[in-house]
Q: What sequence folds into this?
């Protein structure tokens, strides 16, 4: 696949890294020569210094042969114009744009982002995606990573196995015997920073992070089996009143009538603005690193402190200070992968990575075959994937135990006509089934092949 990426920031670089690593033909455009130099030195990509919305820069990047244009610069308007140019002058089949300003995404204006106006095929809003991830973490406080598939009927969650985890040293095959009515399957294990496919003969060790696939109404029970039966937070402090912080506060007001929300915002003008927007939340103007502000917010009685500023270091330090002052749980927004790798060691209960979330959203549309959803794990070491089985798929019509193409993969759930089923050796996948599975990075191409239409079908 030939892909042109506009923007070589964290998100653009991350997308280029993933796609180039999978032997796609990738070109990346950025106005900053230093970013292009870093990208071309570290990745197998073509670099172009220029503006992503300019036809000449797109032409030098090889846009005429591109299958997809991905515009993820820091400016919404540049991303929009890049898609328009890619469509009008070069007839690019698929155009993806990151759009952060929420006004463009409101229902009354959303029609503008269509083929008849601004021809954008896929709109990605990082603030909404990250906000929804934060809300899922709040609703399932025992999980350190969560994502939904199959229209919300299936949940994938990561859970830390601590010293008091009841299922440590128990072979996974025995979990089914111990809990025969539990609708959950462990699909992957993160051990020492390395992700591996979970097998029935494996057993969990203290310090592991286990990823399981479960029916939505079984997630809380599954977490309790791992020793995590924390109840959802009611007293919540949000550090940072930017777009993400405001979105989280607004949605909490709508979804959780019992929640007591306090927002800390450093800018006085912004604090006044969001105070007028929110109806039940208390907005405090101050520094999230100031103890007196945290005390005023009632941090010692808080169930959860969420740090959502634009500065990773402020998020880390404010969370650690909040925990020292009595907050029961802390969650930080971390953009730098380097910080994310040791966040748990510092005592941070959970974190969200905007880059990982945005890259996952883009990959959903890059993947060939009937791929309906993608969630990247550990910066691309593996992926959770939802795909639709077609009549010509090698998975269809045969018991799973007879299929020899599943090395490096683990099926977690099959959804048929809205009913969630756990896979067994004698399970037979049917056409139109939705399959939720885990794949290590080296087997992604195989997953695409399993869910593509065969030429013999025509």
A:
């Amino acid at each position: 696949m030939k892909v042109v990426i506009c923007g070589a920031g964290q998100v653009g670089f991350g997308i280029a890294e993933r796609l180039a690593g999978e032997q796609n033909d990738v070109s990346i455009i950025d106005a900053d020569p230093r970013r292009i130099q870093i990208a071309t030195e570290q990745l197998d990509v073509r670099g172009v210094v220029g503006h992503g919305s300019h036809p000449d820069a797109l032409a030098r990047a090889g846009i005429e042969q591109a299958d997809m244009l991905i515009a993820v610069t820091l400016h919404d308007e540049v991303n929009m114009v890049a898609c328009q140019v890619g469509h009008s002058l070069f007839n690019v089949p698929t155009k993806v744009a990151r759009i952060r300003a929420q006004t463009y995404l409101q229902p009354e204006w959303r029609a503008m982002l269509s083929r008849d106006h601004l021809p954008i095929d896929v709109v990605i809003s990082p603030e909404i995606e990250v906000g929804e991830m934060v809300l899922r973490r709040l609703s399932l406080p025992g999980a350190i990573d969560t994502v939904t598939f199959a229209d919300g009927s299936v949940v994938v969650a990561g859970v830390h196995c601590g010293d008091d985890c009841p299922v440590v040293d128990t072979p996974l095959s025995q979990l089914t015997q111990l809990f025969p009515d539990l609708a959950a399957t462990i699909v992957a294990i993160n051990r020492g920073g390395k992700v591996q496919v979970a097998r029935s003969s494996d057993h969990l060790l203290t310090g592991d992070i286990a990823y399981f696939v479960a029916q939505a109404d079984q997630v809380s029970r599954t977490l309790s089996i791992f020793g995590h039966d924390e109840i959802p937070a009611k007293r919540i402090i949000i550090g940072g009143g930017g777009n993400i912080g405001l979105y989280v506060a607004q949605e909490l007001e709508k979804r959780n009538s019992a929640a007591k929300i306090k927002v800390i915002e450093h800018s006085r003008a912004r604090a006044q603005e969001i105070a007028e927007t929110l109806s039940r939340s208390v907005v405090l103007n101050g520094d999230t690193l100031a103890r007196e502000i945290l005390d005023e917010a009632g941090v010692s009685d808080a169930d959860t402190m969420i740090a959502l500023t634009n500065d990773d270091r402020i998020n880390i330090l404010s969370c650690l200070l909040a925990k020292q002052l009595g907050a029961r749980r802390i969650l930080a927004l971390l953009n730098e992968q380097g910080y994310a790798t040791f966040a748990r060691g510092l005592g941070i209960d959970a974190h969200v990575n905007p880059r990982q979330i945005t890259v996952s959203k883009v990959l959903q549309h890059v993947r060939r075959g009937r791929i309906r959803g993608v969630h990247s794990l550990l910066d691309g070491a593996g992926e959770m994937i939802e795909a639709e089985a077609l009549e010509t798929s090698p998975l269809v019509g045969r018991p799973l135990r007879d299929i020899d193409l599943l090395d490096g993969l683990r099926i977690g759930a099959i959804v048929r006509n809205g009913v969630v089923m756990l896979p067994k050796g004698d399970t037979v996948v049917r056409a139109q089934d939705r399959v939720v599975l885990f794949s290590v990075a080296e087997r992604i191409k195989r997953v695409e092949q399993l869910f593509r239409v065969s030429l013999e079908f025509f």
In short: The chain is about 30% helix and 25% strand. Residues 289 and 321 are 7 Å apart (CA to CA). The first strand starts at residue 2 and ends at 6.
